[in-house]
Specification:
It is found in: Membrane; Secreted. With 747 residues, the chain is mainly beta. The strands form 26 sheets. The chain has a five-stranded mixed β-sheet, with no helix packed on it.
Length: 747
């Protein structure tokens, strides 16, 4: 136990083990250690923004201001404003991946981008301003606030009123109130007249807050206070102001001073705003933020716009025709969503799925699962991966069961040597395997079998007479075969020697019977058997002549091999020999003519060439002597026979003697009859050939004139005789009538 060296997962196999890795890892080439799969290396792991590889896994990460959607791949904008995760003191406006802060009128946005501090310039015809935190306590650091009011109408004046119930700054009516007071100035300069200084006592002692009016269209209001004296539940001040215009508004004149809509009423005019705007003061229309107020109708994302708002949807959904509802996008309807196999649409997303035996990679592609290497198969023995699945097989001596994965001992073995064992050997064999049967059939029917049992591992249960837990060998495969040996398990436990077992034939049957659960359990039970072929004594068929080889015989152990001599090849029956036609290829080496023979070949030359001593090369003959005179010398062959040597052998030629006139007479006869010349010369051998046409032809013999007075017979023998004919078949270049080689000619 624990003797493997797998880094992660170890799967036991018959006699060994297989290492595999957890999801997110693949097995390295050493078959033991596991390497992390970098999912981010392919298509960014399917992440919309950043893919972070982790050991055995990966995760997608979004930039600040975005959050992962339900598919854990894409990023959606976080609405910090609606979710309340912003830090704006005043107003929050969501942006793509962030948000911006703004302050209401009468408040100034600080350099930190989110804090609002009281103060600022107000240019509207009417409005309001207040201390920070109003109507709650104002901050102790805000010791002074200053507001500048500049009306758009220079002819107007300003009227200030304060909220009586909320005014609650610290103060004392009998004191000069150096802190916690608000002061109004009639103008914006530092030396403008003070209109009113109001202490906080009015809230706590029942004082009435006055209405304050300016004489111009601008004013300065200063608040000074410190709430460090004593805590109050409601402190601070809010001031409303309006323009006092000394004219009577008319809708026909400058729209009655209204931003949007002017309506004439008995008192003058009434300003109204278009949809999406709210009235501030008498005439000012300000955008109404429907997204913040919740008065929009968006299903998902609301973005405020000037006088209106727009709706949008999260990733995976699209805006409906009503401009507010969100409808799921069926990504699978376009190119199957990019999925290799099956695309499953989901609300706001989709999912790629694969058929059995495959898994999704990179969110879309399907890759085949190797159940064998990953150890997810259920094979008892060998596992072979297939496309989308796997198949199980069993080692020799084991049979695959109908369930397709279990192996049970038994089967037919046909190898010349091998081994077989009980299930689970060398550990306990299974309870259900009460009997196993093996058939051994050697490929050599003349051989016999020798069995040897593994001495160290044989550990079946039993003792004489061992009616169970034994192995028995039979000399043959039929039911009546004689028993060679019955070996009980006691040989293991009582020191008995396990003998070798020999058969008398090439087939045998081996039966194992056992049930370990009927006896006490043992740590090692079962049996392994090795077998080898014992070949029969060799017989030399070649020496005894009992072979059937056509040419050559070579003895081998238990048999023989036929072969052929040079120039022959062995037939497909491995017995007879076929002649090799060397002339068909380029291996013969003949310069000109190749003639095949049994087991060999012969070279020869065409006219005017002579075969050399290497029996392959042809060399052109030397130039003949001058032509004979027109007299009629006799052509005399040598008095002795001439022997012609050719690649196929030798032939003897008997010389003949004829005069030129005799030859001419003979040729004249040839003109009126079809004459065949049969020659034993290699150049004329073969099918008889017509020497001349039957059409009468004038023939003149022009014997070569010798330079000598009286040529000898031998000289005449080598003289070339030329036939000049007026027949179309013979017209043209003078043609040798006969070869120079001495030849027997019959007419």
């Amino acid at each position: 136990m624990g003797s493997h060296d797998c880094e992660q997962i170890c799967t036991n196999t018959e006699g060994s083990f297989i290492c595999s890795c957890s999801s997110g890892f693949d097995l390295s080439s050493n078959g033991r250690t596991c390497n992390d799969i970098d999912e981010c290396g392919v298509n960014n792991g399917g992440c919309q923004h950043e893919c972070i590889n982790r050991r055995g896994s990966f995760s997608c990460q979004c930039p600040v201001g975005f959050q992962l959607s339900n598919n854990r791949r894409s990023c959606n904008d976080m609405n910090e404003c609606s979710e309340g995760t912003h830090n704006c003191d005043g107003n929050c406006t969501n942006t793509d991946g962030s948000y911006t802060c703004s302050c209401n009128d009468g408040l100034l946005l600080q350099p930190d981008g989110h804090s609002c501090r009281c103060g600022g310039i107000l240019t509207a015809a009417s409005g309001s301003f207040h201390t920070e935190g109003w109507p709650r306590a104002y901050r102790p650091e805000n010791l002074q606030c200053e507001w500048i009011i500049q009306l758009p109408n220079n002819d107007a004046t300003i009227q200030f009123t304060m909220n009586q119930t909320a005014f609650g700054i610290n103060g004392n009516p009998s004191a000069s109130c150096p802190t916690d007071y608000i002061q109004f100035f009639d103008g914006t300069s530092s030396n403008s007249n003070s209109l009113e200084k109001i202490c906080g006592v009015h809230s706590h002692y029942g004082g009435t807050l006055p209405v304050i009016s300016t004489t111009s269209s601008s004013a300065r209001v200063v608040f000074t206070g410190s709430n460090l004296r004593r805590p109050l539940s409601r402190v601070g001040v809010k001031v409303d102001y309006v323009s006092i215009v000394p004219i009577v508004y008319n809708c026909s004149v400058e729209n009655g001073g209204c931003d949007h809509i002017c309506v004439s009423i008995s008192e003058g005019v009434e300003c109204q705003c278009r949809d999406g705007y709210g009235l501030i003061g008498r005439s000012t229309c300000s955008d109404r933020n429907e997204c913040e107020s919740g008065s929009h109708g968006c299903d998902q994302v609301c973005t405020n716009a000037e006088g209106s708002y727009t709706c949008s949807c999260h990733s995976g959904l699209e805006l409906g025709s009503d401009g507010e509802s969100c409808i799921d996008i069926n990504e699978c309807s376009v190119e199957n969503g990019g999925c290799n196999y099956e695309c499953v649409n989901q609300e706001g997303s989709f999912e790629c799925r694969c058929r059995d035996g495959y898994r999704v990679s990179n969110g879309r592609e399907c890759i085949e699962i190797d159940e064998c290497s990953e150890g997810t198969h259920n094979c008892d023995s060998d596992c072979t991966n297939t496309d989308g699945s796997y198949t199980c097989s069993c080692n020799n001596g084991l049979l695959l069961q109908p369930d397709g994965h279990s192996c049970r001992c038994g089967g037919i073995l046909t190898a010349a040597s091998g081994s077989f064992q009980t299930d689970g050997w060398p550990t306990s064999y299974r309870q259900e395997n009460f009997q196993c049967e093996w058939i051994i059939q050697l490929p050599n029917s003349d051989a016999t079998i020798q069995f040897n049992i593994d001495q160290s591992a044989f550990g079946t249960l039993g003792k004489p007479p061992c009616n169970k837990d034994y192995i028995q060998f039979f000399d043959g495969t039929d039911s009546g075969a004689a028993s060679l040996k019955k070996i009980c398990g006691l040989l293991k436990f009582y020191g008995g020697a396990i003998p070798s077992i020999n058969t008398t034939s090439s087939t045998t049957r081996v039966v194992f019977t056992g049930t370990r659960f009927q006896q006490r359990p043992l740590s090692r039970v079962g049996v392994k058997v090795d077998y080898v072929t014992i070949p029969p004594p060799d017989v030399d068929e070649c020496a005894l002549g009992t072979h059937n080889c056509e040419q050559l015989c070579e003895n081998t152990p238990g048999s023989f091999i036929c072969s052929c001599r040079n120039g022959y090849s062995l037939s497909s029956d491995d017995r007879t020999c076929n002649d090799i036609d060397e002339c068909l290829g380029n291996s013969h080496g003949c310069d000109q003519v190749c003639t095949n023979t049994n087991g060999s070949y012969a070279c020869s030359c065409v006219d005017r060439f002579t075969l050399q001593s290497d029996m392959q090369t042809c060399i052109s003959d030397p130039t003949p002597p001058p032509e004979l005179s027109t007299t009629h010398p006799k052509v005399v062959t040598p008095s002795t026979s001439v022997t012609n040597i050719s690649p196929s052998g030798t032939e003897t030629i008997t010389p003949t003697t004829q005069s030129v006139s005799e030859i001419k007479s003979t040729l004249t006869e040839l003109l009126v009859t079809e004459t065949t010349v049969t020659a034993t010369s290699p150049l004329l051998a073969g099918t008889p050939t017509p020497l001349l046409p039957k059409t009468p032809t004038n023939i003149s013999l022009a014997p070569t004139v010798l330079s000598k007075p009286a040529p000898t017979s031998t000289e005449l023998l080598v003289t070339k005789t030329t036939v000049t004919a007026s027949s179309p078949l013979l017209a043209g270049t003078p043609t040798p009538l006969l070869p120079k080689t001495p030849t027997n000619i019959s007419l």
